[in-house]
Amino acid sequence: MSNNEDNGWNEYQKLILSELKRLNTLYDKLCEEIKDMGKDYDSKLDRMSRDKDEKIVELKVEISALKVKSGLWGSLAGLVSALAVLLLRMI
Questions:
Q1: What pLDDT does residue 57 have?
Q2: What DSSP state is assigned to residue 7?
Q3: What is the pTM (predicted TM-score) of this model?
Q4: What is the span of the domain harbouring residue 43?
Q5: CA 82 to CA 58: how far, in whole Å?
Q6: Distance of CA 90 to the CA centre of its chain
Q7: CA–centroid distance for 24 within its chain
Q8: CA distance 43 to 58
Q9: 9 CB neighbour count, 10 Å cutoff
Q10: CB under 8 Å to 10, separation ≥6 — which residues?
């Protein structure tokens, strides 16, 4: 027998190799999970960006509607005051 076999190096060598293979497999799985998390994160950001853009468009539409309504109410108020002045002059 050689000196390496006597001190158990061959078995220790096999143990180390199997542990390295196990760690490599775990590393590969972790890398895949990180890639998947990155893809999920990107899709969430895209969705949030689209939601934000949609809300901005909704707000712009609402603001435009409020501008039209305020213009109509302002015109109506001006008309009422003009009619009041005309009625007072008639009296």
A1: 95
A2: T
A3: 0.54
A4: 3-90
A5: 36
A6: 65
A7: 33
A8: 22
A9: 13
A10: 4
